[in-house]
Design brief:
Order of helices and strands: EHEEEHEHEHEHHEHEEHEHEHE
Mean pLDDT: 91
Low-confidence stretches: 170-178, 180-184
CATH class of the largest domain: Alpha Beta
CATH architecture of the largest domain: 3-Layer(aba) Sandwich
Number of helices: 10
Strand order of the largest sheet: 10-9-8-13-11-12
Strand content: 25-35%
Largest sheet: 6 strands, mixed
Number of domains: 2
Radius of gyration: 18 Å
């Protein structure tokens, strides 16, 4: 009897634990370097501990991708129980994770397909969940890969950060760099364009930014059904839950997830981030 295809993602997708278990999704952690210590994302350091420390310390941490060797070891573990692996990972535009995964895939003698999500956090998570559902239904590896790749240009994500400081210092600010130093009290609405961060809009307050994101979603959702949506956040759980409830009042959601941000993503966004991600179909 044929074994199933393993679904692998990285820790930054930060899919809730119950969904990882339900859909048999495997993870590999990214890395945080802080002072003289190295932490595996959400293994050695959790979001609560991380964000508390982030706002207290002057020295900001840095992040790095798993090595090709770490991916090879993970692949070999999974190959004991599966015939093939589909690895759906954080955008190559903001991380070297895809490059490490691809290098490792060339080191093993069993099928590994690496998919660059061109997304991050739960926006990539939505893609992973769709692929995992295809795998759970018994779909072949080719169908699983096709499911994931079909969502690269369909999943939208918007987010507002309390400050651009962390994105700027971490070098992940992309096309939003032009906003640094010019916003003062403005709140930027950011999104991912071809896997890189860019500016979508800017408004006066965070509350207005969140409602602008809702308005953009509402315009996109006209006449659409089968809405798959997630709200994710860093240290803003109440705001995230309120946003989800607001959307649920007017829409039936096929997928409705409120999730946090992993420490590795938090290094670059800082606390207080609110994000909305979705696709239709």
């Amino acid at each position: 009897m044929s074994k199933k295809t393993a679904i692998l993602t990285d820790s930054t997708a930060y899919i809730p634990d119950e969904l990882l278990a339900e859909l048999d999704i495997h993870t590999i952690p990214l890395i945080i370097n802080w002072d003289d210590n190295t932490y595996l994302d959400n293994v050695d350091i959790t979001p609560d501990i991380f964000f508390d420390r982030l706002v207290q310390e002057k020295n900001l941490p840095t992040t790095s991708q798993p090595s090709a060797g770490a991916f090879k070891e993970r692949y070999e573990e999974l190959a004991k129980d599966y015939d093939g692996i589909v690895a759906i990972l954080i955008s190559s535009g903001i991380s070297g994770t895809v490059a490490s995964a691809q290098a490792a895939a060339e080191m093993v003698d069993f099928p590994v397909e690496v998919v660059d999500s061109k997304l991050a956090a739960m926006s990539a998570g939505l893609m992973v969940l769709a692929a995992a559902r295809t795998a759970k239904a018994g779909g072949p590896m080719e169908e699983i890969v096709a499911t994931a790749k079909s969502l690269v240009d369909k999943v939208k994500v918007m987010f507002v950060v309390d400050t651009l400081e962390f994105l700027h210092k971490g070098g992940r600010i992309g096309g939003a760099k032009r906003l640094v130093g010019s916003l003062l009290s403005m709140k930027p609405i950011l999104h991912l364009v071809d896997g890189k961060i860019d500016a979508l809009d800017s408004v006066r307050t965070k509350k207005k930014a969140v409602q602008t994101m809702v308005s953009i979603f509402e315009a996109d959702a006209v006449g659409k059904d089968k809405i798959h949506l997630a709200v994710f956040h860093s240290t803003a759980e109440d705001e995230a839950n309120k946003l989800m409830e607001q959307i649920k009042e007017t829409h039936h959601l096929e997928t409705a997830i409120v999730a946090g941000l992993s420490p590795v993503i938090g290094v670059h966004t800082g606390p207080g981030t609110i994000a909305l991600t979705y696709y239709f179909g």
